[in-house]
């Protein structure tokens, strides 16, 4: 998709690409600023190359305006999601408590997995699944 965006940008030219610049920059910016673990470095390099291409194509001033608008929009979305999570905690404490318990359980499991990978002979205690016990009718 990034290659396609670059090709379309070059094909449209300097004047016709300007209205679509924020739309094109949004996924490129998201890829540059992402920090998840399984990130592909080739994708990051490609997005950087296309940003440089766009910068040369439309000029620094137009590019800077579009890039700053994309940056501002991403920051607003991030702040809105953070605010929504905080409001959910107040509005629905039971749902928030369940999410928190799930997060802590996952954290503990991750810690156990990490310890097992560092020390192969050590076996961490795992939470037993009571799936059959839950299904069976207990009187």
Automatic annotation (TrEMBL):
InterPro entries named among the record's database cross-references: SSU_processome_comp_20, UTP20_C
Matching Pfam families: UTP20_C
Record-level GO cellular component terms: 90S preribosome; small-subunit processome
Domain U3 small nucleolar RNA-associated protein 20 C-terminal: 1-116
Protein name stated in the entry: UTP20 protein
Encoding gene (name): Utp20
């Amino acid at each position: 998709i990034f290659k396609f965006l670059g090709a379309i940008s070059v094909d449209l030219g300097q004047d016709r690409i300007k209205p679509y610049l924020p739309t094109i920059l949004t996924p490129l910016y998201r890829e540059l600023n992402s920090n998840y673990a399984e990130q592909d470095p080739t994708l990051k390099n490609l997005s950087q190359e296309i940003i440089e291409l766009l910068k040369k194509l439309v000029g620094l001033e137009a590019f800077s305006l579009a890039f700053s608008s994309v940056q501002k929009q991403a920051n607003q979305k991030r702040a809105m999601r953070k605010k929504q999570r905080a409001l959910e905690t107040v509005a629905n404490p039971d749902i928030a408590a369940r999410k928190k318990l799930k997060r802590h359980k996952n954290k503990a499991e991750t810690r156990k997995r990490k310890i097992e990978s560092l020390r192969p002979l050590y076996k961490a205690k795992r939470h037993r699944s009571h799936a059959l016990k839950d299904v069976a009718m207990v009187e």
